[in-house]
Amino acid sequence: MDFTLVATDGGSPPRSGTTQIHIIVMDVNDNAPVFTQKVYIGHVLENAPEGSVVLRVVAIDADEGVNGDISYQFSQSLSFALRPAFKNYLRAGDCAHPGPGRESRHMVVVTAADAGSPPLTSTHTFSVDISDVNDNAPAFNQTSYTMYVHENNAPALLVGAVKATDADAGPNAKVSYSVVPARGPEEEPCSCVSVNSESGGVFVLRPLDYEQLRQLEVVVSAADAGSPPLSSSVSVRLLVVDENDNAPLVLHPSAQDSSPPSSELVPAGAEAGDLVSKVVAVDADSGQNSWLSYQLLRATEPGLFAVGAQSGEVRLEEAATERDAAKQKLVVLVRDNGRPPLSATAALSVLLVPGSWDAQLPQQSPAAGEDDGSLTTSLIIALVFVSLLFLLSAAAFVACKVCKRKELSSGPVLYGASSVQSYVADGAAAGTLPHAYCYEVSLTTGSGNSEFKFLKPVLPSLPAQHCSTGVGGGPC
Question: Would you call 469 exposed, middle or buried from its count of C-beta atoms within 10 A (0-12, 13-18, 19+)?
């Protein structure tokens, strides 16, 4: 502030003098800093790089000089770190990423202080919103799931649930479930299993039969609602539990409606413990539901037969006697080990064959004895006839052989006695045949070739003598 001061004396004429006065008002730090906005809201992406600007706060001080110089201080948060830059700029620090379990909005307190003595301050609270980025795929709480369902289940039966969580926030953390093909998009997903898209509950849509399908495996996918959506999948193995829904099936003896069951024959003289028959049965169930036990339910003679509880073998409990009925009816009960147990019955017909019952069997009727005697006689006669026929054939064959051998040994003579003598005489006269021989043409057995057999002389050597011929006398 500047003004002029005039001083006047009391003389006559009065005299005066002037001077300039400069008044300087010394500033006193009597004004605290004031923020220019009542509300500050900052925004930052969760994956923003370190040092990104979040917001700028401004405060003013009415004082001058050092009393008007303002400095800022920011509070530190445990879950989110912010740091000042260029006095009033708020930048993202090292912990800008919220991460799983951290809040998306953080409250930050800023303090503005002047440089007066003593300094005056003012505080203001503002919020920083961290915008979520869809950078986390849903994660299941198990690597795989195993669920059980009893066969013959009700349709749309809930058998279990899958659970997946997403570390993101908002729509990026909303998970939906679906059944996807196990071997690629070209394959159709399983039509008998469904999953609730919101809760993850797994449902079996139709009744299952253990004998046809014992287990199946499906793939459940969990996808978030981000853009673009992220997903993960897990394998769900569904095991079908066997129920006792199949009664035992009897294979032997087979009961056919068109023909009565065949009878098992028990020969005379069968002893106690001998095997009569065996009941064979199977059960389509598994485990203890397929364990079979056998029991004799009814019998014509209850004490005559026994059935093996595990093997199903029907054996004689005691030797049969003439007092037992010739035709026995047995009913064997076949039962499984299920809860409740199921059963089937097998009907057996046993025929006691009459025969030599030692001294205990009744005598046969005379008619039966005569029939047996006539049959035996016929068999003996036939045997004798066949034996005689064989002997006669053998004798005839031997006789033929002997005759042929004699004929061969004698052989046919090519020349008669008279002709031989004349031939010998003529030969002797000519001097060409000193000895007389006989030649025989014969065929050897087993050979088709003709050969001459040289035999011993049939005439003795003739001494030299004279015989007369029709021409003239001379030595023969």
Answer: exposed
Q: In which residue are the tokens 């069997």 written?
A: 361
Proportion of the chain above pLDDT 70, given as a percent: 73
The strand pairing partners of 217, in sequence order, are 237
Question: Phi, psi at residue 215, to the nearest 5°?
Answer: -160, 155
Q: Is 98 exposed, middle or buried (0-12, 13-18, 19+ CB in 10 A)?
A: buried
Q: How far apart are CA 400 and CA 394, in angstroms?
A: 10
Q: Which pair of tokens denotes residue 234? A: 């897990």
| 9-48 pLDDT, tens digit each | 888 888 888 988 888 877 788 888 888 888 888 787 877 7
Q: For residue 350, give the nearest of 259, 250, 261, 265 by alpha carbon.
A: 265
Residues making up the chain, counted from first to last = 476
Task: Specify the amino acid at residue 473.
Answer: G
Burial of 210 (0-12, 13-18, 19+ CB in 10 A): buried
Within 13 Å, how many C-alpha atoms sit on residue 66's CB side? 6
Tokens 């004082």 belong to 63
Q: Alpha carbon of 140 to those of 173, 186, 196, 203, 345: distances in Å?
A: 13, 25, 15, 18, 53
What are the C-alpha distances in Å from 188 to residues 218, 361, 364?
11, 76, 79
Rounded Cα distance between 184 and 187, Å, is 6
Which tens digits make up the pLDDT trace of 216-242?
Answer: 999 999 999 988 999 999 999 999 999
Q: How far apart are CA 336 and CA 250, in angstroms?
A: 12
Q: How many CB atoms lie within 10 A of CB 139?
A: 14
Contact 210, 169 (CB under 8 A): no
* Rounded Cα distance, 365 and 353, in Å: 16
The answer to whether 463 touches 424, Cβ cutoff 8 Å, is no
**Contact in structure between 137 and 228 (CB atoms under 8 Å):** no
State how far the alpha carbon of 243 is from the alpha carbons of 261, 287, 344, in Å.
32, 10, 17
Q: Residues near 429 by Cβ (< 8 Å), separated by ≥ 6?
A: 467, 469, 474, 475, 476
Q: Would you call 320 exposed, middle or buried from its count of C-beta atoms within 10 A (0-12, 13-18, 19+)?
A: buried
**Cα distance between the two ends of the chain:** 216
Alpha-carbon distance of 22 to 1, in angstroms, equals: 6
